[in-house]
Amino acid sequence: MNVQTKPNLFHFTRAPRPLIDRADGIYMWDATGKRYIDGSSGAVNVNIGHGNRTVIDAMKRQMDRVSFAYTIHFENQPALDLARDLAARLPGLDRIYFVSGGSEAVEACLKLARQWAIATGQPNRWKIIGRMPSYHGITIGSLGVTGDAVLTPAFEQMGHAMPLIPAPVVHRDRDNLSLEQRGTRYADMLEEKILAEGPESVLAFIMEPIGGAATAALVPPDSYFSRIREICDKYGILLIHDEVMTGIGRTGAFLGGDHWGCKPDIVSLSKGLSSGYAPLGALAASERIVGPVLAMGGFLHGHTYGANPVACAAGGAVLAETDRLGLIDNAAAMGEVLKAELEGLSARFPFVADIRGKGLLTGAELYADPVAKVPLPRELNANVRLIDLAFERGLIVYSRRVKGGPESDNFMVAPPLIVTREQIGEIMGLLGDTLEALAAELDLPVNH
Ligand code: PMP
Asked: What start-end ranges are recorded for coiled-coil regions in this protein (predicted)?
């Protein structure tokens, strides 16, 4: 269990990290025996918690039968079953395609949309409008629709930087409009962008129904969703919902968009789909989209590890456990408790504001001045300090500096959906200690 001083393995961060030893439920232990609460469910993916025996046993059984069968040669039962079980939960989106992760799922959505345009005699439609800020993945195609001023510029010539409209960061606006009016105003920006780009060239609009990595659980006003669908229909543009983070119960509904009765044409899924037990992602689309593509000769896509039997067996068991343990209802109920607790922390630490979220995807912003919406100075590195101070105390939180659009530091609290009321108390105790330390270090105000 020794950590090499200069390991061969490298990651996107150079910061040294402890070696993980084991994990159970919402807890993880490193090789020194230190315990952490997984307050971010890994990358907001370990929805059913660590060490679930039912999932592990289902995967073992599948490995004993067959671990791999190439999709060109064979169907496999776990993939057929998981597609059926997903379709049953996704009315109108009953054609399913499996990949190995979230970026791959988004890539597959973009390619399916493009092939649909060709198959339906609209070959000039190719632009996919995204939002700034947003996160849709790290591959060249998914970065092309991602709004991030740091991650994307180096690769723009290699892929294609797609048009972006502002994400509906309604809590940052200081106008006299109501939230619903702001929602409509942000949605109208899609129509303006379509008209500026030329409606005949626009293929789709992609959005996270509830913001994730870039906007920390940003919940748009109700008016946003209906207006976006209306605009897409008006111009014959496909609506892609990226539900990689919000899907499979995370927000207290099966899909994030279900809170508003959204009817996207294509949806990407990953993360909670296998809850971290195996790399797995999926797209779900309506027959209206998939039918013409298959009729024209098929989806020009496929990864070696697509529809992997062991990963799909994990996904099937995760869905079954989600139902058996009532995790979607628990996410909704515990999410309310968590948000109320975060509001309490905001009263104690006034630099923490704009608490939001749905279910167990909750977030907040850090401000120098929460009323005037003045961000903390960039050089304070508040997001990194927050993560580190929490980590020292045995709590894992997700925090980022938003890069693109109005700058700010934000953070998310998104524990596994199995979390109990007592465990939320434990998380909040550690988060309170962390914010106390952050306030002392950065000289931020505290109400005692
Ligand atoms: N889309 C969204 C909405 C995400 O949150 C993420 C991951 N944070 C991705 C796509 C990319 O998923 P992955 O990291 O599995 O490639």
From this structure: none
